[in-house]
Design goal:
This protein has 21 helices and four strands. By secondary structure, it is mainly alpha-helical. The relative contact order is 0.12.
């Protein structure tokens, strides 16, 4: 039996989690502008697919960019757009459903491993408070749907491990679907294969062949159908430059948001490893390995930590259960185990603080975006191509990406793309307007992740375009609008 105090604490935690989730979902459904630039970019690719039937580009003509994700996220958003759902809203609805699925699976996993509802409610409270899940769970990107499918696959494996149920083939199918959202959704199938290899090598082989065979056949077939464009976009052109400072940023954020859960998971790891819950520890290590392998990539953001955060929530709850925390705390014990309420409180306070700040920034950013879009209307009302670094305006005015400056610059620098076409078109004034986050007549922004064109292109803009307007928006940097200089005919 739980004491009145422990019940009250759990009720308060779950209430805070529910309020946090509801607030993020409400703002996501209300807002009409992107929360992150990649969200807008995903939406523009889905728009091109819906209107032109094109996905994964050959870079021989516009649009000069790549589709970095696997096809399911683009296809689902495009399909919803064709039946009247706005692009950004479509992506957010997909992610909100996926986030709800993750909550449900956390609950089911914890009950499966512990049969303790207090443990399940604690997991739900931590998940609802976790900024990494709730903040990113309402953004229209591929991460959360991929993780939801991966976690569902792992849950079916866990039922096989604990209850002996036959669901491994379905787990393999879900793993493949997860990979068709995001190609780095490898942690769950890798963990399942490794765990099966120790308990039943034949089942491990079957699982591996299903995931690798079916997934490989789909990918190879898709690539052949697109004449190699699929691999070019999702693999060879998606290998962004690496920088160690990105790893440092990831660790600093993890320290700020997840370190209490790391402590709790580590303290109970030995006890958890003696139970079936050890499977979750293996999955956690696999997710962390994927994070380490990808975090150094330029362009990576904290969404790369979502799967690790979810597994830390599961493993920390399993640790609390294995250390008998819930019973000891209910009895008012003075054991050191009951002191684990402190890191839980630190986790809650820190994540709610970050979550509240992010939510207020999104509300303020939406208001700034709306003012900026009003000022941008004349630029998009004119006929002709617009070269825009601002994906939000492209989504709003339903234009495709012509050139995505950051990806384009990386491809040009890597020798994978010639810059001749764009330079000639800038020189000839082909773009009726150019919208950039950089003042062509000011100092260059040296940030390697800044969405700017190569220096040669900025020089060409200075010669053949004039700065019309500087438009403040939601980002730390303003948007600069340029129009072609009209030369008199002789």
């Amino acid at each position: 039996m739980s004491s009145p105090l422990s019940r009250r604490i759990l009720i308060v935690a779950c209430t805070l989690a529910l309020v946090a989730v509801a607030a993020h979902v409400a703002v996501a459904l209300w807002a009409q502008s992107e929360f992150t630039q990649p969200e807008g970019i995903v939406a523009t690719h889905a728009f091109t697919l819906a209107t032109e039937g094109i996905l994964y580009y050959d870079l021989k003509d516009y649009p000069l960019t790549i589709c970095a994700y696997m096809p399911l996220i683009y296809g689902m958003i495009a399909g919803m757009f064709k039946i009247g759902v706005p692009l950004l809203l479509a992506g957010r609805l997909i992610n909100i459903v996926a986030m709800a699925t993750i909550f449900f699976l956390i609950w089911k996993l914890l009950l499966l491993y512990t049969n303790d509802r207090r443990c399940g409610w604690t997991g739900l409270a931590l998940a609802g408070i976790a900024q990494l899940l709730v903040g990113w769970g309402v953004i229209g990107r591929a991460d959360v749907p991929a993780i939801a499918l991966s976690l569902a696959a792992f849950y079916l494996y866990a039922r096989h491990s604990v209850l002996g149920e036959e669901g491994l083939d379905i787990a393999a199918a879900l793993s493949v679907l997860g990979l068709l959202f995001k190609q780095t959704a490898l942690a769950a199938p890798a963990a399942i294969f490794l765990l099966l290899a120790f308990s039943s090598p034949k089942r491990a082989l079957r699982f591996g062949l299903l995931v690798g065979g079916v997934g490989g056949a789909i990918v190879l077939g898709f690539n052949a159908m697109l004449n190699g464009r699929f691999f070019f976009n999702t693999v060879s052109s998606n290998l962004n430059p690496f920088a160690l400072f990105k790893l440092q940023l990831h660790f600093e954020y993890m320290l700020a948001t997840l370190s209490p859960l790391v402590v709790i998971s580590a303290l109970g790891a030995r006890h958890v490893f003696a139970t079936r819950g050890r499977d979750s520890l293996v999955y956690l290590l696999a997710a962390f390995a994927i994070l380490l392998a990808t975090a150094c990539k330029l362009g990576s953001d904290f969404n790369y930590q979502i799967e690790t955060a979810i597994l830390l929530i599961v493993c920390s709850c399993l640790s609390l259960h294995s250390l008998n925390f819930f019973d000891l705390y209910s009895r008012g014990s003075k054991s050191w185990v009951t002191m684990l309420i402190l890191p839980l409180a630190v986790f809650a306070v820190q994540n709610l603080r970050i979550s509240t700040t992010a939510l207020l920034e999104r509300i303020e950013g939406e208001q700034k975006f709306r003012m900026q879009l009003k000022e941008l209307e004349p630029f998009f009302a004119k006929p002709g191509q617009v070269l825009s670094a601002d994906s939000n305006s492209l989504v709003h005015f339903q234009r495709r990406i012509e050139v995505e400056p950051l990806i384009y610059r990386w491809l040009v620098d890597a020798g994978q793309l010639s810059d001749k076409r764009v330079l000639e078109d800038i020189r000839d004034g082909k773009f009726q307007s150019i919208l950039l986050f950089e003042d062509a007549f000011g100092p260059e922004n040296s940030d390697p992740e800044f969405p700017r064109l190569p220096k040669s292109h900025m020089d060409m803009i200075r010669s053949h375009y004039r700065l019309i307007k500087r438009l403040p928006g939601a980002y730390p940097f303003d948007l600069f609008a340029y129009q072609a200089i009209t030369y008199p005919k002789h």
